[in-house]
Amino acid sequence: MEKFTTLRGVAAPMPMVNIDTDMIIPKNFLKTIKRTGLKDGLFYELRWTADGQKKDFVLDQPAYQNAKIIVAGPNFGCGSSREHAPWALLDFGIRCVISESFADIFYNNCFKNGILPIKVPKEIIDKLMDDASRGSNAVIEVDLEKQEIKGPDGGTVHFDIDPFRKHCLLNGLDDIGLTMEKKPEIDDFETRQKESQPWLYAAE
Amino acid sequence: MATRKKAAVPPPPPPPPRTLFEKIWDSHVVHRQDDGTCVIYIDRHLVHEVTSPQAFEGLRMAHRPVRRPEATIALADHNTPTTDLSLGIPDEESRIQVETLEKNVAEFGVPYFGLQDPRRGIVHVTGPEQGFTLPGTTIVCGDSHTSTHGAFGALAFGIGTSEVEHVLATQTLIQKPAKNMRVAVEGSLPLGVTAKDVILAIIAKLGTAGGTGYVIEYAGRAIREMTMEGRMTVCNMSIEAGARAGLIAPDETTFQYLFGRPNAPKGGAWDLALGQWRRLPSDKGAHFDAQIDLNASDIPPMVTWGTSPQDALPITDVVPDPANAPDEARREAWTRSLAYMGLTPGTKLVDVPVDRVFIGSCTNGRIEDLRAAAEIVKGRKVASTVSAMVVPGSGLVKAEAEKEGLDKIFLEAGFEWRIQGCSMCLAMNADRLEPGQRCASTSNRNFEGRQGRGGRTHLLSPAMAAAAAIKGTLADVRDFQ
Ligand code: SF4
């Protein structure tokens, strides 16, 4: 997984509430067996009309075509657990989403893919949404180590993040590798469980 | 040396009361970090074709085996055709995805229910049916509706594909405990009101993010009086309130359902298991971080009007007016929803015409759901303007329904009787709405485009869906009873 340390880029405003993962990447793009190449499906139905015309969605406007950050309305990423949602964001070049709140599974999925989801209170979102609306001037800087967001006019705000998740993201750590180191403890757990609940192992 | 009288050892303090969630959590912690992050053990893993290919690919690249293939069941449900399986899967991408799953399960030795296997169904129907879902266990699947299995008093939640790979490789997950919420539904459900109406009413009250960060335990008389099918419907939609999982304490209803199922404990193990399962319910005095109370007698048959599951109203109500929205954000959301749904404020919900009716999905594709719908349909005809279909949740549900003659009732009324699968719940296969079509659906999501681009979804119970099919508009099932 790619490390996340600092990020500087254009932020695209998406004030809509409850942007669900069906919206982020519709089902017809879930038939892939790869993690890459999903940017064409990102927000597909918001970007294209049914007969294939562009709809002038924010990410297609010249100012935001290279956006690296999204400032979003509350409950971003609700609905389906599809990890295709963060894969599609990443494939487009989005490395950070800032919102008042996220749905749990999406939030979790971001960290597995080197995307930083930042939760901040509504007043800060309102300010950042304003900043983001300034088009290509909406350059925002995110510093994970310092836990700071710097707006285009230089003002900085602090954000909270779970220290363990921060550590993993800063170092690009692979969860599975970390857990593999706990193999003896997992073995022990299974030995105990097999004794107390043998029916959970009946098929083996 | 002078002998000293041993000081009387004070009895150990009684353990603090714990919730059902805390008991399951505590018994699955493999490792706890100082910051509270835990490695928790996963007892059961369900795998389907859409969210697993990249996970198996990851294992292959890292040369990692599946740690416990026997704790896993794999099957294809999302992409599978519901009309004819003898032709295979005509859509190329869908076929490749299912073939990829078949290759992966063969390579990694994971038990698999093939396309023609009658046990194959929607993962959340098959798991419980096989007794794979057991009280007190942890269950995951790369699918948000894994919360369904919480109906058995199992901690069950959806995960992303990276976590699917993590579970395949290590049989564990890295997690922090959730907060506890208790939703109590006291009293008994009125006639015509079902588990689906209860959960829609709960989501309407909580909001689509109201459960974020929580595991919801459903309790109260109305929940206790529900069958396992009803409880699964309730837990299934926990995720639509944003909750990580839903839970219901196991009781005699649970044990009766499980007894004799293929993967349930047998003989002496059954008695041993029962003893453990009876200790699972939340202790008296256990702490809940939030508590919501509903009265069953206040819940009418419900239907959604918008594009979020929280947009649910009693069927006797009218399409709401954004002018009356409680705040600006919601006014905007309602306006957008109504435009998408093609609805005018003030229209009576029972006057909204429907083009399609879909009875099925992991929310309402079980035998009891089909029985409830058939009871309304029996001796009646689907309106000439409506195309309606029933898609059983598994091959075994289908076989049981056919044994009971339900298929005949549906076919005679003008419904299509299909082969099991997710079907038009998310329209990854050929079953989908055309742009602008309006559907009365027993599934769980009414998001924009969920059942097909431009399609308009109204969520409701199986009996309500049946009533809509006959009347040709959304309808109050109580007028049919
Ligand atoms: S029936 Fe619908 S909600 Fe359930 S698993 Fe299938 S697609 Fe997901």
TrEMBL record, chain A:
Its EC number is 4.2.1.33. One of its GO terms (biological process) is L-leucine biosynthetic process. It comes from the Bacteria. Pfam families: Aconitase_C. Residues 1-122 form the Aconitase A/isopropylmalate dehydratase small subunit swivel domain. One of its GO terms (cellular component) is 3-isopropylmalate dehydratase complex. It catalyses: (2R,3S)-3-isopropylmalate = (2S)-2-isopropylmalate. Pathway: Amino-acid biosynthesis; L-leucine biosynthesis; L-leucine from 3-methyl-2-oxobutanoate: step 2/4. The keyword Disulfide bond does not apply. Keywords: Amino-acid biosynthesis, Branched-chain amino acid biosynthesis, Leucine biosynthesis, Lyase. The keyword Amino-acid biosynthesis applies. GO terms for molecular function: 3-isopropylmalate dehydratase activity. Catalyzes the isomerization between 2-isopropylmalate and 3-isopropylmalate, via the formation of 2-isopropylmaleate. PANTHER family: 3-ISOPROPYLMALATE DEHYDRATASE SMALL SUBUNIT (PTHR43345:SF5), 3-ISOPROPYLMALATE DEHYDRATASE SMALL SUBUNIT 2-RELATED-RELATED (PTHR43345). Belongs to the LeuD family. LeuD type 1 subfamily. This is 3-isopropylmalate dehydratase small subunit. The gene is leuD.
TrEMBL record, chain B:
Keywords: 4Fe-4S, Amino-acid biosynthesis, Branched-chain amino acid biosynthesis, Iron, Iron-sulfur, Leucine biosynthesis, Lyase, Metal-binding. [4Fe-4S] cluster binds at C362, C422, C425. Binds 1 [4Fe-4S] cluster per subunit. Residues 22-472 form the Aconitase/3-isopropylmalate dehydratase large subunit alpha/beta/alpha domain. Belongs to the aconitase/IPM isomerase family. LeuC type 1 subfamily. HAMAP family: LeuC_type1. This is 3-isopropylmalate dehydratase large subunit.
